[in-house]
Design brief:
The complex is a heterodimer of chains A (511) and B (402).
Chain A: E1 4-15, E2 18-29, E3 33-37, H1 44-52, E4 61-66, E5 69-71, H2 76-81, E6 84-87, H3 99-103, E7 110-111, E8 114-115, H4 117-131, H5 146-159, E9 164-168, H6 176-191, E10 195-199, H7 203-209, E11 212-217, E12 220-226, H8 234-242, E13 260-270, E14 278-288, E15 292-297, H9 303-310, E16 317-325, E17 328-329, H10 335-340, E18 343-346, H11 350-354, H12 361-366, E19 374-375, E20 378-379, H13 381-394, H14 411-423, E21 429-433, H15 441-456, E22 460-464, H16 468-474, E23 477-482, E24 485-491, H17 497-510
Parallel strand pairs in A: 3-10, 3-11, 6-9, 9-10, 15-22, 15-23, 18-21, 21-22
Antiparallel strand pairs in A: 1-2, 1-4, 4-5, 7-8, 11-12, 13-14, 13-16, 16-17, 19-20, 23-24
Chain B: H1 14-20, H2 22-41, H3 49-74, H4 82-99, H5 104-127, H6 133-152, H7 162-169, H8 189-215, H9 223-245, H10 252-270, H11 272-282, H12 284-289, H13 294-320, H14 331-341, H15 353-372, H16 377-401
Classes of the chains: A alpha/beta (511), B mainly alpha (402).
Chain lengths: 511, 402
């Protein structure tokens, strides 16, 4: 019997009306990296909340054995005490406090309530060296990027003498360089004997680092794969997650490309906050009818900023340049005008920017085009209900009814509600910003299918994505952006992960 | 993927229904319980016709301002200046009516416009300059109180012309006195008939709504529940209407208030403007990116608040028959408390007109009941504070449990 540090046996957790976990088993050996995968809503996060004591002992059935003893955690500090630390997807850092203050928040090095700053700083320095972060301990969190913030979280975990580190989607908002650094760090920790559990949707990363992979589906354990015994392919993992073979991750499409719909010329934008810094330089691009156009680039290349500055000048400052629709110049200076011109923008962050979470599906669906279901400012209930019902069935939004609040939907279904909202404005060009981020494999396929349908209807699609395979799989043409400039335009034939990266690297050398 | 549950039920069980709608019914039940409680403690004074009339007169302005405040709170803001706007517009109306001798038909609209301008002056800073409403209206509270002292030169002005006083002290005349079957008991037969007609109309539309809901497969409340609820509300309405009809009938203010409640209920539940305010309060950024002009919408919620505060200011001035620089001190707190007792969320996006109105009456009945009992202002404040805390705690507790 080898060193099992954690065993969760027969965990069952029910919420009113839903069985979130059904007899889940998880066995983690000391010193391994154990990946936990599954579609959204499969129960990964719930399982980790049970483990860490967010859901206290007694509110679930089953046993937790940790370090060879049965444990009953009733608060998070109980589990933290024994070295189980979770780093959540939404980082729990205080933006305006320094790195050092954040690391020792709630755990200050102090005597009688007076903080020992020299000691705090020197300890912080040690921890930062361990995680490979070169920033002074006094730097404020808000002044460093997400990648570095993630490292601060890990340093914070280390300060608490972590034995079992749980990372919930640690690389979801990181670019590739930062992701790689983080994964290397995990492997470094493994050498030192630390155990980690990593929840992730990025299967290539999991393949890179995991020793074992446990797959959850619909609240139950499907299987645990041992990466050392056999060569596990991504398709193999996906099969376990969705319960069937996914022959093709991207639905096939016959592009029928027509006239130019949207054209942007000489677009220059200054930074929203640092007002004297030019952020976007001389952007030119176009989208044709029936075409899916991608924008590739690293985080911070200016992709989101480009489309937001076009969509009603909702980002940036001192914006110059021209926007044409059907060859005619249009005014996009406010969001209502941009919508009138035929644009729609599905934001990157659907919870913060896309949905009114405490409103129901129906209200979210009609929000952008409320006048279409109203007469003289009075909403026609029946018309509105019909619109929402139609989109719900057309986009196959899984919910009890159109009256379900958006907050209670899974990521994929939330995204479909946002899509409904914009489709109801009958746009000609639909701008999609990371449309499948944080969405499980099955729902991704459905989103791609919707994109294809829209293109087939003659709409132009402009899609930003950080997942290169996704762009390559869905787009007819790809623009590559770097440092606020468009640095390449690649046809479907020319585009590949290599050619995109080459374009980025080469442009980086020039400046 | 979220597990699909069984097909949606069109008629949930009474237990489920109560659990889902506990807030609304809880509030109504609380109001009734509090009324009965004080009816008992005051040895029957509370429900006397003259006291019921007083209850309406004393609370009308709080209710009217709560309508505007609810919109502001739902939009995610707050307005601390309404008490000062009340005094300011009351003072201006006094100067125009008493000092300049203008007719009330000119003064009333003029004061409403001035109230709108005051609201606009504050709304501008909140909506377009992004200064937190708490700060802007705190400044407004001081500025308009100061201006009130200035325009009134530290002295109360009064009395008002008779016709203006009728705004607060007048009653709807008994148009139907000639067919009054019980002239000895009922002194305003019209009031009773009006209540009966309203109850009939309410029941008609209630049944019609259920019918259309059934037709469209929308969830209805359980039928027994519907009957019970309609029955209780009708009985209470008829009882109150009867009591008023044995005194002077409907105060003018009651009619103004009722019309405004109906209007604002309609705006919040059925109009695009109302929908957009809720969306904006729920997620301002998402609303803006959906093409809603959030600045303009915010601006107009403050203009609206200013107009309603001006109306309240005139009602109070007419009731006291004098405009004083100290009028309306602390009203903002009563109005805000009414909204929060009524279930509005301090973070915006949640709240109902009916809730705010019931909240205002809960506060009003407590004020009135405790005054009759002879409890001092000390106890009144203490009790009101605790009730506010309890109501909001109930909300938070419910939310965490659900």
């Amino acid at each position: 019997m080898d060193n099992i540090i954690l065993e969760m046996r027969g965990i069952t957790k029910t919420f009113p009306g839903v069985k979130a976990l059904d007899n889940v088993n998880l066995k983690v050996r000391e010193g391994e990296i154990h990946a936990l995968v599954g579609e959204n809503g499969a129960g990964k996060s719930t399982l980790m909340k049970v483990l860490s004591g967010v859901y206290p002992a007694g509110t679930y059935d089953g046993e937790i054995h940790y370090d060879r003893e049965v444990r009953h955690f009733s608060t998070i500090s109980d589990s933290e005490h024994l070295g189980i630390i979770i780093i959540h997807q939404e980082l729990a850092l205080v933006p305006l406090l320094s790195i050092a203050e954040n690391i020792f928040l709630g755990n200050e090095i102090a005597t009688n309530g007076v903080i020992d700053w020299p000691k705090t700083f020197s300890r912080t320095q040690e921890l930062l060296t361990k995680v490979g972060l070169k920033e002074p301990p006094t730097t404020r969190i808000t002044d460093i990027g997400v990648g570095k913030q993630q490292l601060v979280e890990i340093a914070k975990a280390l300060s608490k003498k972590v034995r079992l580190l749980i990372l919930d989607e640690p690389t979801a908002s990181l670019n590739e360089t930062d992701s790689d650094a983080l994964l290397k760090l995990l492997m470094e920790f493994r050498k030192q004997g630390m155990t980690s559990i990593i929840i992730s949707h990025k299967l290539n990363e999991i393949k890179k680092v995991a020793d074992k992979i446990t797959i959850l589906r619909d609240g139950g354990t499907v299987e645990t794969l041992d990466c050392h015994n056999e060569d596990i392919s991504e398709d193999r993992i996906i099969k376990g997650m969705v319960g069937r073979d996914m022959e093709d991750r991207y639905p096939p499409r016959e592009p029928k490309i027509g006239e130019t719909l949207l054209e942007v010329r000489n677009w220059n934008v200054f930074h929203q906050q640092h007002r004297d810094r030019q952020f976007l330089h001389n952007i030119n691009f176009n989208v044709r009818a029936g075409e899916v156009v991608g924008i590739a680039g690293l985080m911070g290349a200016g992709r989101t900023e480009t489309v937001m500055s076009i969509f009603g000048k909702s980002w940036g400052h001192k914006i110059t340049g021209e926007v044409f629709m059907h060859g005619k110049q249009v005014d996009v200076s406010t969001i209502p005008r941009a919508i009138d011109a035929g644009l729609a923008y599905v934001t990157e962050d659907r919870k913060q920017l896309g949905l009114v979470l405490n409103n129901n599906i129906m209200h979210n669906t009609t929000l952008s085009n409320l006048n279409a279901v109203a007469n003289n400012g009075v909403i026609d209930d029946h018309k509105e209900r019909k619109v929402a019902t139609d989109y719900r069935s057309k986009l196959r939004i899984r919910s009890h009814s159109i009256y379900q609040e958006a907050v209670n939907l899974s990521g994929g279904n939330q995204q479909k509600v946002v899509l409904s909202k914009w489709l109801f404005t009958s746009p000609e060009v639909l701008i999609l910003d990371e449309p499948t981020r944080g969405i499980d494999v099955g729902a991704k396929y459905e989103i791609y299918t919707i994109i294809n349908q829209l293109a087939a209807e003659g709409k132009g699609i402009l899609m930003i994505s950080s997942e290169m395979p996704e762009l390559l799989g869905t787009c007819d043409r790809i623009y590559v952006m770097n440092e606020g400039r468009i640095v390449a335009e690649l046809s479907k034939q020319e585009a590949s992960q290599e050619s995109i990266m080459r374009a980025i690297m080469r442009s980086g050398e020039k400046h | 993927m979220v597990a699909e549950t069984s097909a949606p039920k069109t008629t949930p069980s009474i237990g489920d229904y109560l659990r889902n709608n506990i807030r609304e019914y809880g509030l109504l039940v609380a109001l009734v319980v509090i009324m009965l409680f004080f009816q008992f403690l005051t040895a029957g004074v509370l429900f006397r016709p003259v006291n019921l009339t007083n209850l309406v007169l004393q609370n009308s302005f709080i209710v009217i301002m709560a309508l505007g405040m609810l919109l502001i709170i739902v939009a995610g803001h707050i307005d601390l200046s309404v008490g000062s706007i009340v005094a300011f517009t009351g003072g201006l109306s006094a100067i125009m009516l008493v000092k300049w001798g203008l007719h009330f038909s000119i003064v009333v609209p003029l004061c409403l416009i001035l109230g709108g301008l005051v609201g606009a002056a504050q709304g501008y800073w909140v909506a377009y300059r992004k200064i937190p409403a708490f700060i802007v209206t705190l400044a407004g509270m001081l500025v308009f109180r100061g201006l009130t002292y200035l325009v009134l030169q530290n002295r109360p002005i009064g009395p008002f012309p008779k016709d203006f006083q009728l705004l607060s002290t007048g009653f709807i005349p008994d148009f139907l006195y000639f067919i009054n079957p019980l002239p000895g008991v009922i002194t305003n037969f019209f009031a009773l008939v009006a209540v009966l007609v309203l109850v009939a109309v309410a029941i008609y539309y209630g049944v019609k709504d259920r019918r259309t809901n059934e037709l469209h497969g929308t969830e209805n409340e359980p039928f027994a529940f519907f009957v019970l609820q309609m029955g209780i509300i009708s009985a209470v309405a008829i009882f109150l209407g009867f009591q008023l009809s044995t005194y002077k009938g409907f105060p003018n203010v009651l009619v103004v208030m009722a019309l405004l409640i109906a209007l604002y209920t309609f705006v919040t539940t059925r109009s695009t403007i109302g929908r957009r305010i809720y969306a904006m309060g729920g997620n301002e950024k998402a609303a803006k990116l959906s093409g809603i002009n959030t600045e303009r919408l915010t601006f107009y919620t403050f203009v609206n608040m200013g107009v309603l505060a001006a109306l309240a200011g005139m009602i109070i001035a007419a009731r006291l028959n004098s405009a004083t620089p100290k009028a309306g001190v602390g009203f903002e707190l009563d109005v805000i408390a009414a909204c929060f007792i009524g279930g509005a969320s301090a973070s915006g996006g949640v709240g109902k007109i009916t809730g705010a109105v019931i909240g205002a009456f809960i506060m009003g009945v407590m004020n009135n009941g405790m005054s009759i009992m002879g409890l001092g202002i000390d106890y009144q404040q203490l009790v009101k504070g605790l009730v506010l805390l309890a109501a909001v705690f109930f909300d938070v507790y419910n939310k965490n449990k659900g």
